[in-house]
Design goal:
Blueprint: E1 2-6, H1 10-17, E2 25-27, H2 33-36, H3 44-48, E3 54-57, E4 60-64, H4 73-77, E5 83-85, H5 90-99, E6 105-110, H6 111-117, E7 127-129, H7 137-145, E8 150-154, H8 165-183, E9 189-193, H9 207-217, H10 234-242, H11 250-256, H12 272-275, E10 287-289, E11 296-298, H13 316-327, E12 335-337, E13 343-346, H14 356-360, E14 366-370, E15 376-380, H15 390-394, E16 400-403, E17 405-407, H16 408-412, E18 417-421, H17 434-442
Parallel strand pairs: 6-7, 6-8, 8-9
Antiparallel strand pairs: 1-4, 2-5, 3-4, 10-11, 12-17, 13-16, 14-15, 15-18
């Protein structure tokens, strides 16, 4: 099953992602920065996907759930943990790593390297992942906090593997972890390599024998097997098995959702035909016809909270990372610069007090305040900033900058920055519809009169 969606069409992005939801990847669409606001540029998952399950092609987000290998690389790069890896879960992987520690070294091996070595690997000597891109910084920080002196991410010959993009993510994670751990004074060595450590080899197996086995195995191109989820109908299953890209069939969708009316032609989810249908296609993809209107409403829509913001969620990985750093003690460096640390700076000369930054912030790193004395504004907690840049992308006045170098005390000290704003007056003398027009501008046209 293949979905092609305009990358700006956030209503469809969220629903299409749920086709990927399964035993290997859990999708939390309400956390996705792109789903929360279409102006957010984040498509890190598409850039990192190792299998072609998620891809950006000519401005269209293409999702083919049948291609997912369950590697979890998309979850590694997702700043808000809208994609959660389950194959294995974070807790299972940490347990496996600690169980495999030998002489202070934890080795995490990709599935292709394990296949290449076979019984030449000592039993229980490695933690297993589908792809090296599955390893994230919170895991490495947790290992350092547990006293591990060396973490080795053992890759296959990535230039001979279809999941070669995973190496780039593994190296990015390793470098980020080195920066963070170094800032907290940890000396844990982190290595991403295709050289097999002798400590994980079975008795009597030399490094030369292991190297020769890898040479033989990777003499041909290798690829991880897709994780095949059961589809809602035989037609969808046949389409997935064929491996041929095709649009979602509304007939197949009708079979998955009895009683739904849908045109017989194959259409993509964001097409006008699909807009006019009650289409259910794929695991977790549920659309309901909003009777009397010209568009569908997706199941599990985001609900605005009392303060006018969308729900916030601080990723568990973020909390585990900060907990591990805290366990290492006081930071040795005054500041840190990496992909996981950012802080928001608001230019008061440009800000018009709309507070859309707080409305769409996925983690609540930016929150509204409305004091009893009439003061309004936002508070920013750098420790909760996952650097998704949603605030920067949705600000219509370019008043927000996300800085890359962050003082270490901001990450663990619970520090907040308070920005007091001036409420804007709305004049209605010349245009009785000005309030409505203002809302239309703010929400990109998604406001209707009754």
């Amino acid at each position: 099953m293949v979905e092609k969606i305009d990358a700006a069409a956030h209503r469809h992005v969220g629903a299409a992602f749920e086709a990927v939801d399964g035993e290997a990847i859990r999708v939390h669409r309400e956390r996705c920065a792109k789903v929360r606001n279409r102006n957010v540029e984040c498509l890190k998952c598409a850039a990192a996907c190792t299998s072609g399950c998620i891809a950006l092609v000519d401005g269209e987000l293409v999702l083919d759930a049948a291609q997912c290998v369950g590697c979890g690389t998309c979850a590694t790069v997702c700043p808000t943990c809208a994609l959660e890896a389950l194959n294995p879960s974070d807790a299972e992987l940490k347990t496996a790593c600690l169980s495999a520690v030998r002489d202070g070294e934890a080795v995490i091996a990709c599935s292709q390297m394990e296949a290449a070595l076979g019984d030449r690997l000592a039993a229980g000597a490695c933690a297993s992942v589908v792809c090296a891109g599955r390893v994230d910084e919170s895991l490495l920080a947790a290992l350092a906090a547990e006293g591990v002196s060396r973490a080795t991410v053992l890759c296959g010959r990535c230039d001979r593997c279809a999941q070669r993009h995973g190496l780039e993510v593994a190296e990015l994670v390793a470098e980020t972890a080195r920066v963070l751990l170094g800032a907290w004074g940890s000396s844990m060595d982190i290595v991403v390599t295709d050289e097999v450590p002798e400590g994980v080899l079975a008795g009597g197996v030399s490094a030369e024998v292991a190297r020769a086995a890898c040479d033989d195995f990777f003499a041909e191109e290798r690829a991880c097997e897709p994780v095949r989820a059961e589809e809602g109908s035989a037609e969808l299953a046949d389409a997935a098995d064929s491996g041929e890209p095709s649009a979602v069939s509304c007939d197949a969708a009708r079979a998955a959702a009895p009683g739904a009316s849908a045109p017989s032609a194959s259409v993509s989810l964001s097409s006008p035909e699909a807009e006019a249908a009650d289409v259910t296609a794929g695991p977790g993809m549920r659309f309901y016809w909003n009777s009397g209107h010209s568009r569908k409403v997706a199941a599990h829509s985001l609900h605005v909270m009392r303060d006018g913001t969308l729900p916030h969620f601080v990723p568990d990985r973020r909390e585990r990372l900060l907990d591990a750093l805290a366990a290492l003690g006081e930071p040795a460096a005054s500041s840190v610069e990496c992909r996981l640390a950012g802080a928001v700076v608001i230019d008061a000369t440009r800000c018009d007090s709309c507070r859309m930054c707080a409305t769409f912030c996925p983690t609540g790193a930016i929150r509204k305040f409305d004091d009893a004395d009439g003061a309004i504004g936002v508070e920013h907690a750098p420790s909760d900033c996952v650097k998704c840049r949603s605030c920067q992308d949705v600000c219509r006045n370019d008043a927000i900058t996300v800085i890359d170098t962050v003082p270490t005390r901001w990450l663990l000290g619970g520090e907040t920055h308070r920005y007091t704003m001036t409420p804007r007056a709305v004049a209605l003398t010349d245009n009785p519809h000005q309030i409505l027009d203002t809302f239309r501008q703010t929400f990109n046209g998604d406001i209707f009169e009754r």
